[in-house]
Amino acid sequence: MSFSNIPSITTSRLSENYGSKNFNEMLKKSKEIISTLPKREPHHPIFECYQYDGFWYHLASLESALCMQQNFKAQPCDIFVCSAPKSGTTWLKALTFSIITRHDDDITNNLLFTKVPHECIPFLEVDFLSNPKIIDMELPLLATHLPYSILPKSISSNNCKIIYICREPKDTFVSLWHFIHNIEAKSLKVPLLTFDQAFKWFCQGKSMYGSYWDHMLEYWKASIERPERVFFIKYEDLKEDTLGYVKKLADFMDKPFSKEEQERGVPQEIVARCNFKNLSNLEVNKSGKYTTAITKEISNNLFFRKGEIGDWKNYLTEEMAKYIDDITLQKFQSSGLTFP
């Protein structure tokens, strides 16, 4: 697929230091900084986490994030798809990718038929150190789970646009638990994380990229301060009015649907192409695998479990649900951010 109708990346997103002796010194320094940080306990063999500036990160993600501060050069046309894990990322990637590339392929040649959405839009902190060629590709779409406060400074200085999706905390936790549990189950040598321990970490703000509530609040406040640059979406709202939000996203991304496209039903085609049933039934998402520097190899089907609203009712006790609701109420008071 070519991206002939998309503003091209005219210069590298990587600084002249990338790969140099200076860069290697920065990487070494970041490792030294991380070695002094608090570690999450009890130890988890796959998802070892460190606390930095109020949030918890996987080792590889934090190393990458620290190095990116001086060595990632966002371009003014770049758009960043941001989220905490398991809050609607896969779906939002599919939608934004389809919107921005709709002039460059027909429905029979769409990359979403052969690649999981995470391969179509790379994760910034995952691929910056391990696969810089992907980061430097010409498509002006990149994704990240990083909190707003640790994003590379070049994103703000170049007025890049940000699309952020979040999800009701109880559903987010249940989805995250299943994702981690299923990854662990693929490795017979790894003891499974208990549901109670995962719940405790989530509520304490010690889930990856957590606290989840603080993660949401940072982007929420940024969307209020800079609404022309930060588009904030709730998963539940996107489910309720997918077509309406696809049109809003296209406008925000400076790729509005023309009158002719709307008459031809292009927005509806994108909604149908990216719905949960369609994506989860694609062969690539049933049998394919996604390789990352963090978790090595993940079966694509793990990114497509249910996608339902209110699934938490099948897993949380009333006491657990109230505990999360109380945290949500306390964290969001006076912010204007609410969940039903």
TrEMBL record:
Q: What is its EC number?
A: 2.8.2.-
Q: Does the keyword Transferase apply?
A: yes
The molecular function terms in GO held by this entry are:
transferase activity
State the InterPro entries in the record.
Answer: P-loop_NTPase, Sulfotransferase_dom
Q: What class of enzyme is it?
A: transferase
Per UniProt, which keywords does this protein have?
Transferase
Tagged with keyword Secreted: no
Organism's domain of life? Eukaryota
Residue ranges constituting the Sulfotransferase domain according to the UniProt record: 78-335
The similarity annotation says: Belongs to the sulfotransferase 1 family.
PANTHER family, per the entry: SULFOTRANSFERASE SULT
Record-given protein name: Sulfotransferase
Say which species the protein is native to. Solanum stoloniferum
